[in-house]
Design brief:
Blueprint: H1 3-21, H2 111-114, E1 139-140, H3 147-150, E2 151-152, E3 155-156, E4 160-165, H4 171-184, E5 189-193, H5 198-207, H6 212-217, E6 221-225, H7 228-233, H8 235-249, E7 253-257, H9 259-263, H10 269-285, E8 289-295, H11 309-312, E9 315-323, E10 329-338, E11 342-343, E12 348-353, E13 356-359
Parallel strand pairs: 4-8, 4-9, 5-6, 5-7, 7-8
Antiparallel strand pairs: 1-3, 2-11, 9-10, 10-12, 12-13
Helix pairs in contact: 8-10
């Protein structure tokens, strides 16, 4: 017998021994179909028959291969079977990326409707209901037409606000108008000026027929003009006496015009920060709704001159000059922040008239 014949007999015997050792349960049922008799290299399984258990099987096996493209429940099944793949494009897949009507896609092509109820693109971010922000803090209006509609529900009582702007933007008028609105409603008010005399404040109010002198005579308004140098020298006394003055006068609203002159009295930044912090804290403890005015930084119209007061207050209003596309210079107001209150974040034009400041809430600056 030749060497080749011996090798062939060895292979046939090995195959026969394996067939005899196979249990009946491993045998393929006789279905009348002819099995594949293709010879294979020992130890290698490339049989594509129905009885294969290969995890890469691509036939119609019931083994449930994870890569089966047929009806075998593959998580990547593209067919119309019951696979339930999360990436199934068919109508029954329930895929989160499904664009069909029944898919329930998280990324439905109608992005506008998805954001319609939120403060974002597609929604009307400038339309807030007054009760959108649930707060138990009482609110008060500023008394500035248009701006009150930008503040949803009013400024919270006993909060500390600041109006920041460069020269000529109407900061003092802003504060006087805030007080006048309160006086009309029966509030008591205090106006402290470090820049002008009492007579100058009375004259400004009389020009707009606000009757400050009458309110002062009736004990409803107090106008105090302080020299900033004297105030800085005796700030400790003033800080201690101011809460008592507010309590004795029963003040509801207070305006300080302006805090920038007070800040300028201190060359040391750390000292300035400490003194201004203590001063604002005493106003908060007094329980009065306070508005401060502040000069804007020369380099940044959205920041105060020393960059301190906006971090110590609860609300910040920015008054500034802007130049439109037609090269026209306009006045514009922006609400930078209001704690515990919803507000518009748009920039709106305003004018200073003989009636005070009027914000055109329906107009756009650009």
């Amino acid at each position: 017998m030749s060497e080749d014949a011996s090798d062939e007999d060895w292979f046939e015997r090995a195959v026969d021994d394996e067939a005899q050792a196979k249990s009946p349960s491993d045998e393929t049922p006789d279905t009348g179909a002819k099995s594949d008799d293709t010879d294979t290299t020992p130890g290698t399984r490339t049989d594509d028959s129905a009885g294969s258990n290969s995890p890469f099987e691509s036939g119609a096996s019931s083994d449930g291969s994870p890569f089966d493209d047929d009806g075998g429940g593959s998580p990547f099944d593209d067919g119309g079977g019951s696979g339930g793949t999360p990436f199934d494009d068919s109508g029954s897949g329930g895929t989160p990326f499904d664009d069909s009507d029944s898919g329930g896609s998280l990324f439905d092509d109608d992005f506008e409707s998805a954001f319609a109820g939120a403060d974002g693109p597609g929604g009307d971010s400038d339309e807030f209901e007054d009760d959108d922000f649930d707060s138990e803090i009482p609110r008060i209006d500023l008394g500035i037409e248009g701006l009150d509609r930008m503040v949803r529900g009013g400024v919270p009582e006993r909060h500390l606000t600041v109006t920041i702007g460069s020269a000529g933007t109407g900061k003092t008028t802003f504060g006087l108008q805030f007080l006048h609105h309160g006086l009309e409603q029966g509030d008591s008010a205090v106006f402290i000026t470090l820049e002008q005399t009492r007579e100058a404040i009375i004259d400004t109010a009389e020009e707009r027929d606000w009757g400050f002198e009458t309110y002062e005579d009736e004990g409803q308004l107090a106008i105090v003009d302080l020299d900033p140098v004297e105030m800085a020298n005796s700030l400790d006394n003033i800080r201690g006496e101011l809460p008592q003055l507010i309590e004795d006068f029963d003040a509801d609203r207070l305006v300080l015009d302006s805090v920038s002159l007070l800040e300028m009295m201190y060359d040391d930044q750390a000292k300035r920060r400490t003194e201004v912090f203590d001063f604002t804290r005493s106003l908060k403890q007094a329980g009065v709704t306070t508005m401060l005015t502040s000069e804007a930084s020369e380099d940044n119209p959205y920041a105060s001159r020393h960059g301190i007061i906006e971090y110590l207050t609860d609300a910040v209003f920015i008054l500034q000059y802007v130049r439109t596309e037609t090269r026209e210079t306009r006045l514009a107001v922006e609400i930078q922040k209001i704690r515990n209150a919803n507000h518009s974040r748009e920039t709106k034009p305003y004018e200073i008239t003989d009636q005070g400041i009027s914000v055109y809430q329906q107009a756009n600056i650009f």
